[in-house]
Amino acid sequence: MKCGKGTGTRVYLISTGRGWRRKQGMRYNVDRIREVVLHLQMSQRQKRNTLWIVLGLAWPTMLEQMLQVAAQYVDSAMVGRLGAAATAAVGATTTINWMVGSTLSSLGVGFLAYIAREYGAERYENARRAVAQSVLAVIVAGLLFTAAALSLARYIPGWMNADDEIRSTAARYFFIMVLVRK
């Protein structure tokens, strides 16, 4: 690691596995070494709490994903009482439902990462603009995905190689799910 204060004095620190030492033949600034060691100690304390910080930030998304999967299972269980054809119709479109939902979700995650970076760098105006743009982009993308899914609903079961006898049921189910989810 190379550090310095801009005075021409450079600190070269080498990790020895048990700590840091200066490289032979190099001049060093004691105050700068103390700053580097303090920074490293703070980083180690932060690493201990990283798991809890990540869990604290991620639990809403994890809960949302679990609830979506649970809703799909409950939906399949309820439809399962109607017979094999109804269950097959639900299963024929489940993958497309997940793909559409995941694509829109990833758009939100991308915006969220950018907004968090700008906010963390204290560039609040950029973060505010990104929030406004993300709302607009998600609304437009949601409308486009909904329009595409609704217009393609009758073709999707065929693309998924569903049996002819369940294609119309699967298409109606997919159409309803797109309207309810969006």
Q: In words, what does this structure look like?
A:
- It is a single chain.
- With 182 residues, the chain is mostly helical.
- It folds into two domains: 1-57, no CATH class; 82-182.
- It is 76% helix and 7% strand.
- The chain is built from five helices and three strands, in the order βββααααα.
- The protein has helices at residues 30-80, 84-120, 124-152, 156-159, 164-181, and strands spanning 2-4, 10-15, 20-22.
- Strands 1-2-3 form a three-stranded antiparallel β-sheet, covered by helices on one side.
- Helix 1 (30-80) runs antiparallel to helix 2 (84-120) and helix 2 (84-120) packs antiparallel against helix 3.
- It is elongated.
- The two termini are 51 Å apart.
- The relative contact order is 0.08.
SSE blueprint and pairings:
Elements: E1 2-4, E2 10-15, E3 20-22, H1 30-80, H2 84-120, H3 124-152, H4 156-159, H5 164-181
Antiparallel strand pairs: 1-2, 2-3
